[in-house]
Amino acid sequence: MTQNADFPKNYIEGHQNWVEGLSESESSLYQHLGREGQTPTVMVIACCDSRKMVPDMFNAGPGEFFVLRNIANLVPPQGHDNGMAAAVEFGVNAFKVQHIIVMGHASCGGVAASASHFEAGDASEGSQTLTWLSALKPAYEASKVIAETEDADFSTTFEKQAVKMSLDNLSGYAPVEAAIKEGRLSLHGFWFDIETARLHLLDTASDQFNPL
Ligand SMILES: [Zn+2]
């Protein structure tokens, strides 16, 4: 049962202030997008985490980014999640986005929860969250080896490996594979350092995330 009276008043007023504060050009952009539809060129797969302001962090406006968010910005292998497959197909085939970003971030609660779960060796039955996060197992195993051999921070290593694993999985989705072959789509990995508010881009040549 909905209880509209309980919705925080500050956010209702916040929305009213936001609408009233729109500039003339912003208002006409919304009118244009409402009438003509959207033509985003970039798709972003990001975590649900409240500290990431996608697409604001790219200085991108309404209509530019097609955004999908889930726990731990995870792309499971093709065939494991219908919602993910549908969004990717829609972005690649209907909008013909030219770029797909998988964006991980520092202090990711989802990634940390999966690590605790894998360490404890618990079964994931009964928890939707843990069932979803179980797809991170290959990245977890790889991160354990990397963190040990390179003496690196495990959490950060795992967050970055999770992005790489999701990119690998994403490249196996049929619409993505076809679009890459046609030369009209490229994939990118980012990791967001919350404390500095700076994005780090995965350089495929060096296999390192470098700050923008
Ligand atoms: Zn997260």
Structure description:
The protein is an alpha/beta fold and 212 residues long. It folds into two domains: 8-37, no CATH class; 38-211, Beta-carbonic Anhydrase, Chain A, CATH 3.40.1050. It contains eight helices and six strands. The chain has helices at 9-21, 24-36, 82-94, 109-120, 128-133, 137-150, 154-171, 174-181, and strands spanning 42-47, 65-70, 99-105, 186-193, 198-203, 208-211. Strands 2-1-3-4-5-6 form a six-stranded mixed sheet, covered by helices on one side. Strand 5 (198-203) and strand 6 form a beta hairpin. Helix 3 (82-94) runs parallel beside helix 8 (174-181) and helix 6 (137-150) packs across helix 7. The longest helix is centred in the C-terminal third of the chain and has 18 residues, at 154-171. The mean pLDDT is 94.
Order of helical and strand elements: HHEEHEHHHHHEEE
Low-confidence stretches: none
User: How would you state the average pLDDT, rounded?
Assistant: 94
CATH architecture of the largest domain: 3-Layer(aba) Sandwich
* Total domains: 2
Walk across the major sheet and give the strand order: 2-1-3-4-5-6
Class from helix and strand fractions:
alpha/beta
Shape: globular
| Spatial gap, N to C terminus | 46 Å
Please sum up the structure shown.
The protein has 212 residues and is α/β, with parallel strands linked by helices.
